[in-house]
Automatic annotation (TrEMBL):
GO molecular function: ABC-type transporter activity; ATP binding; ATP hydrolysis activity; ATPase-coupled lipid transmembrane transporter activity
InterPro entries associated with the record: AAA+_ATPase, ABC1_TM_dom, ABC1_TM_sf, ABC_transporter-like_ATP-bd, ABC_transporter-like_CS, P-loop_NTPase, Type_1_exporter
Domain of life assignment: Bacteria
Xref: PROSITE patterns: ABC_TM1F (PS50929), ABC_TRANSPORTER_1 (PS00211), ABC_TRANSPORTER_2 (PS50893)
Record Gene3D superfamilies: ABC transporter type 1, transmembrane domain (1.20.1560.10), P-loop containing nucleotide triphosphate hydrolases (3.40.50.300)
One Gene Ontology CC term in the entry: plasma membrane
The name this protein goes by in its record: ABC transporter
Pfam families to which the protein is assigned, alphabetical: ABC_membrane, ABC_tran
Keyword field: ATP-binding, Membrane, Nucleotide-binding, Transmembrane, Transmembrane helix, Transport
Domain ABC transporter: 347-581
Listed PANTHER family: ABC TRANSPORTER, ATP-BINDING CASSETTE SUB-FAMILY B
Domain ABC transmembrane type-1, first and last residues per copy: 23-316
């Protein structure tokens, strides 16, 4: 199916640090099973005591009186049961502990890995699919380790132990009782092989449902505004139906396992009952041994009915392990090693060519410089590649050709963390966390500075509205900032970027949702900060970039004009035309 090792092997590899814990858990499972099988033998010994009395098996140990034999048998039974219970407690504790540890480690590792990927990876991988992976797949492994692993070990143990007892007591009966085992195992493997792809398909379908639900919950306002509820309900229904059908397909198989195995067990049980009874009647097998063997046949074969559940759990969790390991092994974008402590903020884009998809170039050789402390603006039609250029600067993608320099250092050589610490970025659609206003402004700072938070909010023209909120800076903003207006969200995002005090400030449509008056005030604040920072500003509203030291006009991935506002008006090209359109002024 794939070049990867078996999922179990991949899980073992991942769980290396937990090897000692797993070994202890296994030891306790084995010991528990050992003490669990013994009472069956004691039944045989008890029958032997009451039937054979002075000639019983126990009499050989010097216990001639049958009443004394019974007494000792009772004491022995009590001890066996106590040990069985103690080891049951210990294995349950260990396996469940291990399940929790693995669940935690896998989730941490998977999320940690996702955080190293470019943001586009998450949208390409479908965020719902990732959610399913981080939640359900991880839980699936916990479920298996909670009970499944112990069950598998104990079935194997009881088969070996009971088999050994059978062989010690009577070989011919042992062969008969064990005849169904190969049949059961072949059957279980046959089912298992067919179940695995069905579970993989079911997991995929679950991920699709999750993606759709995720998307719809996020876009509920649009769904309702467009009265698309019925349409979306149908879409969810279709995805859920598919999930149900795939699960039903797996269930048809897994439900058949127990009845089939039971038939095989029946053969083994009937054989022991008949042939063992016959041997006992002929005096070739003791009555005590016969009683023990009848019970032990059950002990040997009956747990195998649980193979169905175990296989089920095992296959589900292996499908989940494979998905998680695939994620963990997906290549992380390369990272540079150099660090930059305090950049001056000089940026240089040299002959940048880039496309998201092979053969579909978005940027066709961009050359531009942003001297330290200067403001450079990028304007141009929608889809012309402005945000893409910023994504390259942030190191989300690497250019196919050309390089980007920060203070003369290629950003490809810099560690992404070090690079991004020099940049303060306000995205087109800023992301606010589900915390308070203050937490959002001081985002990423372990020791938030209250005075700096307020100063940043003032510079972003946000202080006034924040102060008017019910709890001021301590007001929760809601999920993704849902309790705020678009313009308020933008200003908090701007305050956050200013709080960072990074040498380079990148504003991608950072004030598009605020009114003209507020924007003018923000411009004045930014102008005061101007000298200290390099600014790369993207804007559709040209009044925003009017004061920039240099303006570049992008068109379909190429710079078609560059200059100051005044020079571009004089040049009377695309920029001047756009300016006239936006202001109604005549520049000719
Ligand atoms: N993750 C992506 N995968 C594939 N194509 C993308 C991706 N992001 C953007 N694009 C494409 O790249 C082109 C440039 O997009 P970009 O966001 O850089 O434009 P922009 O100039 O910032 O536009 P706008 O002014 O509308 O924000 C567009 O054609 C867009 O469809």
């Amino acid at each position: 199916m794939s070049a990867h090792p078996h999922p179990l092997q991949r899980l073992f590899q991942f769980a290396r640090p937990y090897r000692a814990k797993a070994i202890w858990a296994t030891v306790f499972s084995v010991l528990n099973k050992f003490f669990d099988v013994l009472p069956e033998l004691l039944i045989g010994v008890a029958v032997d005591v009451v039937v054979n009395q002075q000639d019983s098996f126990l009499a050989k140990f010097g216990l001639v009186d049958p009443y004394e034999q019974l007494m000792w048998l009772t004491v022995l039974t009590a001890f066996i049961w106590i040990f069985e219970s103690v080891f049951e407690y210990l294995y349950a504790l260990r396996w469940r502990g291990l399940a929790q540890d693995m669940q935690h480690e896998l989730r941490q590792a998977a999320y940690g890995h996702v955080q190293k990927m470019a943001p586009d990876y998450i949208t390409n991988a479908r965020s719902g699919r990732l959610m399913a992976l981080l939640n359900e797949d991880v839980n699936q492994i916990e479920r298996f380790l909670n009970t499944g692993a112990n069950d598998l070990i104990q079935v194997a143990c009881s088969s070996i132990m009971v088999g050994a007892i059978f062989f010690a007591l009577t070989k011919s009966l042992a062969v008969l009782a064990m005849l169904p085992i190969p049949l059961i195992l072949v059957g279980a493997f046959w089912f298992q092989k067919r179940l695995y792809p069905r579970y993989v398909a079911a997991r995929e379908a679950a991920a699709t449902v999750s993606t759709r639900l995720n998307n719809n919950l996020y876009g509920m306002a649009t769904i309702q505004a467009y009265t698309a509820e019925a349409h979306e309900q149908l879409q969810v229904q279709a995805a859920s139906d598919d999930f149900r059908a795939r699960n039903a397909d797996a269930i048809r198989f897994s439900a058949a396992i127990t009845p089939v195995i039971r038939m095989a067990i029946l053969c083994g049980f009937v054989a022991t009952l008949l042939y063992g009874g016959w041997l006992t009647l002929r005096g070739e097998l003791g009555v005590g041994a016969y009683s023990a063997l009848v019970y032990l046949t059950q002990r040997l074969l009956w747990p195998m009915t649980r193979l169905a559940d175990m296989t089920d759990l095992y296959q589900r969790s292996m499908a989940s392990v494979a998905r998680i390991m695939d994620l963990l092994e997906s290549p992380v974008p390369p990272d540079g090693a150099k660090r930059i402590e305090q950049a001056r903020g000089a940026l240089q884009f040299e002959a940048i060519r880039f496309g998201y998809e092979p053969g579909q170039p978005i940027l066709h050789g961009i050359d531009l410089a942003v001297p330290a402390g200067k403001t450079v603006a990028l304007v141009g039609g929608t889809g012309s590649g402005k945000s893409t250029l910023v994504k390259l600067l942030l190191g989300f993608h690497a250019p196919e050709h050309g390089r980007i320099l920060l203070d003369g250092e290629s950003i490809a050589d810099l560690s992404k963390q070090s690079l991004r610490q020099q940049l303060a970025y306000v995205a087109q659609d800023p992301f606010l966390t589900d915390g308070t206003v203050a937490e959002n402004i001081a985002y990423g700072d372990a020791q938030p500075d209250r005075a700096r938070i307020q100063a940043s909010a003032e510079a972003a023209e946000a202080h006034e509205f924040i102060a008017a909120l019910p709890n001021g800076y301590d007001t929760p903003v809601g999920e993704r900032g849902s309790k705020l207006s678009g313009g308020q969200r933008q200003r908090i995002a701007l305050a956050r970027a200013l709080y960072r005090q990074a040498p380079v400030l990148i504003l991608d449509e950072a004030t598009s949702a605020v009114d003209n008056e507020t924007e003018a005030a923000i411009q004045r604040s930014l102008a005061r900060l101007h000298a200290a920072r390099t600014m790369l500003v993207i804007a559709h509203r040209l009044s925003t970039v009017r004061q920039a030291d240099q303006i570049h006009v992008l068109d379909q991935g190429r710079i078609i004009e560059s200059g100051t506002h005044d020079a571009l008006l004089v040049a009377n090209g695309a920029y001047a035309a756009l300016w006239r359109l936006q202001t109604g002024e005549s520049t000719a």
